From TrEMBL:
The lineage of its organism: Eukaryota, Viridiplantae, Streptophyta, Embryophyta, Tracheophyta. PROSITE patterns: GNK2, PROTEIN_KINASE_ATP, PROTEIN_KINASE_DOM, PROTEIN_KINASE_ST. One of its GO terms (biological process) is signal transduction. InterPro entries: GNK2 (IPR002902), GNK2_sf (IPR038408), Kinase-like_dom_sf (IPR011009), Prot_kinase_dom (IPR000719), Protein_kinase_ATP_BS (IPR017441), Ser-Thr/Tyr_kinase_cat_dom (IPR001245), Ser/Thr_kinase_AS (IPR008271). It is found in: Membrane. Residues 349-621 form the Protein kinase domain. Residues 631-654 have a biased composition (Polar residues). It catalyses: L-seryl-[protein] + ATP = O-phospho-L-seryl-[protein] + ADP + H(+); L-threonyl-[protein] + ATP = O-phospho-L-threonyl-[protein] + ADP + H(+). This is BnaA02g24930D protein. It is a single-pass membrane protein.
């Protein structure tokens, strides 16, 4: 097997070399604006912010913007890696791009470049300017790079142009119609079969801060420029500050692992001319070449899969040796991890792997022997509250499965250690975005709405659609996790309450949650119902619209502030200034829904099912809200948590 594997590698390397012989990489830089002295404060600020970009773009999911310095020497920077990037490739590409700008635009006010890493596995954009360009369509300057080779003039160029134009339309559609919940939206990669030519590859990408209409405009401008100046060349690219366009007769940029493949157009009648014979001969050789390459790839993939599953079996054996199954009444099972495996996965809970800390303990990143990434929640030793949370979370999450709920993989209970093991959610919690001055700008209204709707669907599942009826009791932004595609996942079920099937409300003397998010009937009288969660959801919805913490409105709280502005007819004052260019009517509709959720009278609050219906309808008349509970007495700490207790209540630290 070793000799076969080596042979495959050699043959694939030879084929790759043949392709690379026809490839010339040019990393052109666009420079505009005034000149600065090389030792100026502006240039120093630019170089300083450039030094942070490779790490920052990876930490922020492939797209990042920031600024540094004070006017008139303030520098704005934006960086983007192509969707599907490998972290090291992205890092290397951004590092190369910043070096290229400093070399080619050492003292210019504005600059940008779409760079490629050394092995052409990923493209990336680095842009700097003296004014903020975030959210603005930037078309100039355009950097052009046509292929030095021309297309065979004996070919049917009329037919080629028709098929090429059709491919352009499909690629633009794929890019502007991509998943808008992703931080790296606006990406299209297509491979198409042509009637008289070998396959054509096309890639388009826009920065995710602009609208889909502006992305369409930018990409069309690139295509038009190429056709006007370089039509007849065998490929090429046009770069603009807000978008990237490239096409060729071979794959590039590692973009075609998840490519959309278009079949060849319907066959057309052909004569017996020399051109037709040459076309058929060329296609025959292309077919043979494709067959040979696919054969090698199949052999390579088969060998790789055999080795992969062999390693996986070995890794799984490592897990199974020291595990038990925790069985629940519904027949589902959960993995019980041994402490030794947890210590190995987290490198003995090293500080380098620490993701965060709360009142009940710390959270560390870990990697299991099979390569799976996990988040490990280590509860504080000797904490009675932690023990209660531990048992509660294991009991509930074992039986809950929903795309908008965090997934509990297993637990560990050895000696005085109590540990919960979750799926790793890469983008941390919602509060790290919505309450951060820089990262909040990544949350467009469309993305905020999708997050809000996802949270609502997670709550609906808990309240009505799961096999259990669960009241969360501590819904807030820090308990909403965001995955790599920015999909929300409700987390932290330590204080959740299980209801019987026919039970609608209950009372408790133990009040657990976060002040400011707790419904008045629950905080003051211990009355729990699904409407308690609806109240918390309403507060969080208003936070998403305003971009401000509930406790930022001292003396009254966000719900009371929003209600006063609503009564005054000035509800726009609640809206985050970053959203003022977005559909105000839709945002105002959600302010109204948020106020309905925080009404003082729990019976008047909507169910989560009704909230979701309102979200999706433009014709249903939504009732007017009544006044919320005034929360001036609900003092909070900076992060919105509380730690107060008396004879009848016990308030959980978070």
């Amino acid at each position: 097997m070793g000799k076969s594997f080596a042979l495959v590698i050699i043959l694939l390397s030879f084929l790759l070399l043949l392709v690379l012989q026809n490839l010339e990489v040019v990393n052109a830089v666009g420079c505009t604006g005034s000149f600065y002295n090389e030792n100026s404060t502006y240039v120093q600020n630019r170089d300083d912010i450039f030094s942070t970009l490779p790490d920052k773009v990876i930490a922020n999911g492939g797209f990042y913007n920031s600024s540094l310095g004070n006017s008139p020497n303030r520098v704005y920077a934006l960086v983007l890696c192509q969707r599907g990037y490998e972290q090291q490739d992205c890092f290397n590409c951004v590092l190369s791009a910043t070096r290229g700008i400093k070399k080619d635009c050492p003292t210019r006010m504005n600059s940008y470049t779409w760079d490629k890493d050394v092995e052409d596995n990923v493209s990336c954009l680095v842009r700097s300017s003296i004014h903020s360009t975030f959210g603005s369509l930037e078309l100039e300057p355009a950097v052009r790079y046509p292929s030095p080779d021309g297309i065979d003039p004996s070919k049917n160029m009329t037919l080629f142009e028709q098929e090429w134009d059709g491919m352009v339309n499909r690629t633009v559609e794929a890019a502007t119609g991509a998943e808008t919940s992703s931080v790296l939206k606006y990406h299209g990669a297509i491979e198409a079969e042509f009637t008289e030519f070998e396959n054509v590859y096309m890639l388009m990408q826009c920065t995710p801060d602009i609208t889909s209409q502006d992305c369409n405009r930018c990409l069309r401008a690139c295509v038009t420029l190429f056709k006007n100046q370089f039509w007849g060349r065998r490929g090429g690219e046009v770069n603009r500050p807000s978008c990237f366009f490239r096409w060729d007769f071979y794959t590039f940029h590692g973009a075609f692992g998840n490519v959309t493949r278009l079949p060849s157009p319907p066959a057309q009648e052909k004569g017996s001319s020399a051109t037709d014979k040459k076309g058929r001969s060329t296609r025959s050789w292309v077919t043979i070449a494709i067959f040979v390459v696919l054969t090698f790839i199949n052999v390579f993939v088969s060998i790789s899969l055999i080795k992969f599953f062999a390693r996986r079996r070995k890794s799984n054996n490592g897990i199974n040796v020291d595990r038990e199954e925790h069985s629940e009444s519904d027949g589902q099972h959960m993995l019980r991890f041994n402490l030794g495996m947890i210590l190995t996965a987290t490198n003995n809970f090293s500080s380098e792997n620490k993701l965060g800390q709360g009142g009940f303990g710390t959270v560390h990143k870990g990697i299991l022997p099979n390569g799976q990434e996990i988040a490990v929640k280590r509860l504080t030793k000797g904490s009675g509250q932690g023990d209660t949370e531990f048992k509660n979370e294991v009991s509930l999450l074992t039986r809950l499965q929903h795309r908008n709920l965090v997934k509990l993989l297993g637990f560990c209970s050895e000696g005085d250690e109590e540990i919960l093991v979750y799926e790793l959610v890469h983008n941390s919690s919602l509060d790290h975005f919505i309450f951060d001055e820089e990262r909040r700008s990544l949350l467009s209204w469309e993305l905020r709405f999708r997050i809000i709707e996802g949270i609502a669907r997670g709550l609906l599942y808990l309240h009505e659609d799961s096999q259990l009826k669960i009241i969360h009791r501590d819904l807030k932004a820090s308990n909403i996790l965001l995955d790599a595609e920015m999909n929300p996942k409700v987390a932290d079920f330590g204080t959740a309450r299980l209801f019987e099937a026919e039970e609608t409300r209950a009372e408790t003397r133990r009040i657990a949650g976060t002040r400011g998010y707790m419904a008045p009937e629950y905080l003051n009288h211990g009355k729990i119902s699904a409407k308690s969660d609806v109240y918390s959801f309403g507060v969080m919805l208003l936070e998403m619209i305003s971009g401000e913490r509930n406790n930022s409105f001292e003396g009254e709280g966000l719900a009371a502030f929003a209600w006063k502005r609503w009564v005054e007819g000035k509800a726009e004052a609640v809206i985050d200034p970053l959203l003022m260019k977005d559909p105000i009517n839709e945002i105002m509709k959600l302010i109204q829904i948020g106020l309905l959720c925080v009404q003082e009278n729990a019976a008047k609050r909507p169910t989560m099912r009704l909230v979701i219906v309102w979200f999706g309808s433009d014709t249903i008349i939504i009732p007017l809200p009544k006044a919320p509970a005034m929360s001036g007495s609900q003092s909070q700490s900076e992060d919105g948590t509380m730690s107060i207790s008396n004879d009848s209540t016990e308030l959980s630290c978070r």
